[in-house]
Amino acid sequence: xxxxxxxxxxxxxxxxxxxxxxxxxxxxxxxxxxxxxxxxxxxxxxxxxxxxxxxxxxxxxxxxxxxxxxxxxxxxxxxxxxxxxxxxxxxxxxxxxxxxxxxxxxxxxxxxxxxxxxxxxxxxxxxxxxxxxxxxxxxxxxxxxxxxxxxxxxxxxxxxxxxxxxxxxxxxxxxxxxxxxxxxxxxxxxxxxxxxxxxxxxxxxxxxxxxxxxxxxxxxxxxxxxxxxxxxxxxxxxxxxxxxxxxxxxxxxxxxxxxxxxxxxxxxxxxxxxxxxxx
Length: 279
Description:
- The chain is built from nine helices and 13 strands.
- The protein has helices at 26-43, 69-83, 97-101, 117-125, 143-151, 177-183, 193-196, 214-223, 253-268; strands at 15-19, 46-50, 87-90, 106-109, 129-133, 158-162, 165-166, 172-173, 189-192, 198-199, 208-209, 228-234, 248-249.
- Strand 2 (46-50), helix 2 and strand 3 (87-90) form a beta-alpha-beta unit.
- The strands form three sheets. An eight-stranded parallel beta barrel has the order 1-2-3-4-5-6-9-12, surrounded by six helices.
- The longest helix has 18 residues, at 26-43.
């Protein structure tokens, strides 16, 4: 598999991880993938496509979970081929790591599973990039131990993603000090705008959200020094099969990326943090 991801570690510019929450169909995934690629290219931002083949942590058992491993990986392979973008997807069990690594450039560890040693080690052993989402219950500094589990397999190709911290019941808050604290661990850091705006379980068996703050959080995260932004997008969020309550409407993505890219260039002009290019 050719490496389409070296730019994630070189600090040459902001990058975006974008796509639908879950794979709804092959046609939809490819359509959104092309849109993400075009929006990112127009803004001068590097892009990674993301979508889940299985949402194993839905609030309700009756909620749509996805196409499953085999069919989902076929779709992700098609998206990678058709759009030219690197692709990212979640794994939930150690046994999924090897199969996913044959197709995907980045394996993502969900926030609820970020302490699961066997899962982290299985992901690290594949040699692919591993994106570890910080648990809503964890301090940024404690992500060192999760990263160490992956790095113990011989690779430091790791991303660390902030996705909000539990703030009472059914709410999350982002502490922007996390950018500096996570970056100090020596890895690129990502702000998951989408899931930081979730209101877990607040929609009667599903998660609610506050999409009106998507751009605010994206701008603030870029200014705070995050290397990348994680944004779930959908052409009609109200009809999305998962996480529509916090998805950015797809036609708003191009202008949003233009604005955050401008912020990144300004901040980087006086940013003294080291490069990750040696990873």
